[in-house]
Specification:
Strand order of the largest sheet: 1-6-5-2-3-4
Radius of gyration: 27 Å
Structural class: alpha/beta
Shape: elongated
Distance between the termini: 63 Å
Length: 433
């Protein structure tokens, strides 16, 4: 059986681990779980390190469980948060669960008859009929308030990081998460809990509850992955527009690809170990080649390609690469026509934009693109000169005549015009009906 802990170590994916964990994994086909709260209908790349841990775990021959926190998602976890989460209703949580399972199915094998096929469970299933009195008697009596108060996540909220303090609901979160481990230990044979390093306190509450409930000889372990940051110390996975999501409706495959393509050299060396399944020899060779000529960005390109194909598809990766070439390489009108609307808007995000009424179409280009509504050129003379020198393109095709009419037939996706002035200056014109 491949050494799972060693796999995490060389990839930089191991933060804390309980004594005895590695030896136990080497001698036993082990079931482990990682929990995620379904607070949205998509995971974002901040979740990817944990999902990749489950992927490596299954590839090392073990059985992964993905726990959807339908119950805990109704409460909110204080770990790393300064405010209490909004509570979600059951219908929303179920919808989010199904969306998340579909995404994670690209990383884990939930099908087949292998003993280590992945399983998805929801703690709402065993918490929904658990009365408060039963919970207090069966769980609460085993863990002291002193023990719970000592947790870092609780202390930080009590010591001024939270504007409104810590609610009782959040305070009990670690008991509920601890019971999740106990329940799965008893019903599914789960012996290991994995998660982000900010979860260590909640996770060890689970092992403590198991031992106090079942006896000190009960075998239960925890290990965590580090919280991933950028080399400048800033939060990983955040952009100016927010999280980088796995759902294409929230973050298009092109924008997703561009995120990875634009990481720093130092980050690329770390991320390619964490977020791909490439083996050690391949990664070492890529890093060595990249260091010889960083300008070629070999590492970033391979990282972006691997993660985009894994999260989306090879087809989406091909489209993302083609879309990247629209701005930075040779491309044609046909390439533009193959883009979906969101990708087109992402490609030209940040370029100057104008809006025209459809009634304005039919005019000569020189009239349209020097008008106040779409002033791509400062004067008709400037445009004539650039067109004659071959320096103006409409929808990636050279404009042969400055006075040729611009009509509805020129529109991309029925409403866009892309004007290029020189090599690098693009303008996006939206034509309203």
């Amino acid at each position: 059986m491949k050494n799972f802990v060693e796999e995490l170590k060389w990839r930089g994916m191991l933060a804390q681990i309980m004594p005895g964990t590695e030896d136990y994994l080497q001698h036993n086909l082990t079931s482990a779980y990682l929990g995620t709260d379904p607070t949205a209908d998509s995971l974002h790349i901040g979740h990817l390190c944990g999902i990749m841990m489950l992927r490596h775990f299954q590839r090392c021959g073990h059985k992964p469980y993905l726990l959807i926190g339908g119950a805990t998602g109704m409460i909110g976890d204080p770990s790393g948060k300064s405010q209490e989460r909004n509570l979600l209703d059951a219908d929303t949580l179920y919808h989010n669960q199904e969306c998340i399972k579909k995404q994670v199915s690209k990383f884990l094998d939930f099908e087949g008859n292998e003993p280590n096929k992945a399983e998805l469970v929801n703690n709402y299933d065993w918490m929904k009929d658990f009365s408060f009195l039963d919970f207090a008697r069966e769980v609460g009596k085993h863990i002291t308030v002193n023990y719970m108060m000592a947790k870092d996540s609780v202390q930080k909220r009590l010591n001024g990081e939270a504007r409104d303090g810590l609610s009782f609901t959040e305070f009990t979160y670690q008991l509920i998460q601890g019971y999740d481990f106990l329940y799965q230990y008893q019903h599914y044979g789960v012996r290991l809990q994995m998660g982000g390093n900010d979860q260590w306190g909640n996770m060890t509450t689970g092992t403590e509850l198991i031992r106090r409930t079942l006896g000190q000889e009960a075998t239960a372990f925890c290990l965590t992955c580090p919280l991933i940051t950028k080399s400048d110390g800033k939060k990983f996975g955040k952009t100016e527009s927010g999280n980088v999501w796995l759902d294409r409706k929230r973050t298009s495959p092109y924008a997703f690809y561009q995120f990875w393509l634009n990481v720093s050299d130092d980050d690329a060396e770390r991320y390619i170990r964490i977020f791909t399944s490439l083996d050690r020899e391949t990664i070492d060779a890529l890093i060595a080649e990249h260091r010889q000529d960083p300008g070629r960005r070999i590492l970033q390109k391979r990282l972006a390609a691997e993660v985009t194909a894994m999260v989306h598809s090879q087809e989406d990766l091909d489209m993302a690469i083609a879309a990247s070439n629209i701005l930075f390489g040779k491309s044609t009108k046909d390439d533009l026509l193959h883009l979906d609307e969101q990708t087109l808007l992402d490609v030209f995000n940040g370029v100057p934009r104008f809006t025209l009424d459809k009634a304005q179409l039919g005019q000569p280009a020189v009239e349209l693109f020097t008008s106040d509504a779409a002033k791509v050129f400062s004067s008709k003379g400037e445009m004539r000169k650039l067109v004659q020198g071959g320096g103006v393109s409409l929808n990636k095709e050279k404009l042969a005549a400055f006075d040729r009419p611009v009509t509805a037939d020129d529109l991309i996706d029925g409403k866009y015009l892309i004007v290029q002035r020189g090599k690098k200056n693009y303008f996006l014109i939206t034509v309203k009906a």
